[in-house]
Amino acid sequence: MRGDGRAPVLLVETGRGRGGSARSLSRLLSGLDRRRFAPVVAFHSDGHGLPWVEAQGIEVVPIARRRVLHPGENGAGLAGGSRAVQIGRFLAIEVLPGARALVRLIRRRGIRLVHVNNQLLSGLPAILAARLCGVPVLCHLRITRPLTRVERWVAPLVDRFVATSRMGIECFRASGIPAARLQLIYNGIERDAYDPATVDGEGVRRQLGVPDVPLVGVVARIARVKGQRQFLEAAARVLAYRSPVQFLVVGGTSPPEAEYAAGLRAYVETARIAPHVTFTGWREDVPEVTAALDLAVQPTAYWEGFCNAAVEAMMLEKPVIGTSAGALGEILDQGRAGIVLPNNEPDVLAGAIFDLLASPRKARDLARRGRERAERLFTLEKTVADLECVYDLLLARDGDPVGRGTRPGAMGAPAAGGDGRRAA
């Protein structure tokens, strides 16, 4: 504990700084009670930095990263040699140097809790460092798949896991993580920043030169998993029967997805829909961009850990179409707060887009139910309160309780959250 009574907490972000995990981290830190917790962020990547975190006056410590290696199942993903050699190379090149640096940081700052904001393997240096220093470890698992064999080896080193969906809870329990070490905490969105009464998208329309026609968009980083190709194929089908409609693809591209992004632009030209499609690139003004849409689409191709963009659209009272991949169906209440479709089905997606554009009353009803659900389950206040309870639990076990009672509405039992039901 610091001299001012605050508990120093190290939060480790291993992504590139512009994805959903970094955005969720920034939101968490904006609501975290600074009277009780003193956060320090270790940015373990070679990406763009964490501007959202730095803007809050929180110290960001860069941890040098040599290469991004993912052993995966049975060590797949590391070049050459037997499985043992591959994993040994992963530990020597990727894990141990990072762990040594983090041990020094933990001891120098008197860190009392380590929170890994991404996944098990990318967070392994922090997990090992915490164990070497005798500090409890919390790990966010922002995925909806079972753990790989290597991840299952690492899991016992973590004191507590946070899953962002019930589907995630089920996957992790099936992977052997006991329910007592799992906590469901949905990502939360700032209600004020996504208030449909105050956020105006007209300026974005004017800036992009979008005419006064229906605007359908996908807001997500450009990546195969996000399904932009399926979105554009659906757009081509819609435009074959209904015009005018404009389609918006919002999101930046990381180097591993550059070829995929180039393929999207090539498809737009080949399909002859370029006049009806706008690629915006990375945007900071996500609330305004989302407010400009008449219909928000999340065409996730094969899994989705959560989907902040879907909740942002719901909070802005926009009708949402998503796929059944990952947690989207759960977010959209299995079709009661949005349209849920099978993934990788452009024809089906095109039909749903066409149907909502032709049925304004249905679209308004979905949008209203979506906002009601977002306000009930996906607020930043609830997310922060639930996570602070987990912090308190782990600090108390470490003999370092932080003096304050549970916030109203905060979670209680393990593997509970959201609507209050157990994640059995």
Strand and helix map with partners:
Elements: E1 7-13, H1 20-31, E2 37-43, H2 51-54, E3 60-62, H3 83-109, E4 113-116, H4 124-133, E5 137-141, H5 149-154, E6 160-163, H6 166-174, E7 182-184, H7 202-208, E8 215-219, H8 228-241, E9 246-250, H9 258-270, E10 277-281, H10 286-291, E11 295-298, H11 308-315, E12 320-323, H12 328-331, E13 339-341, H13 346-358, H14 360-377, H15 380-397
Helix pairs in contact: 1-15, 3-4, 8-9, 8-13, 11-14
Description:
The model is unreliable at 68-78, 403-413 and 420-424 (pLDDT under 50). With 424 residues, this protein is α/β, with parallel strands linked by helices. The chain is globular. Helix content is 40%, strand content 14%. α8 links the parallel β8 and β9. The chain has helices at residues 20-31, 51-54, 83-109, 124-133, 149-154, 166-174, 202-208, 228-241, 258-270, 286-291, 308-315, 328-331, 346-358, 360-377, 380-397; strands spanning 7-13, 37-43, 60-62, 113-116, 137-141, 160-163, 182-184, 215-219, 246-250, 277-281, 295-298, 320-323, 339-341. It folds into 2 domains: 7-188 and 379-397, Glycogen Phosphorylase B (Rossmann fold), CATH 3.40.50; 192-377, 3-Layer(aba) Sandwich (Rossmann fold).
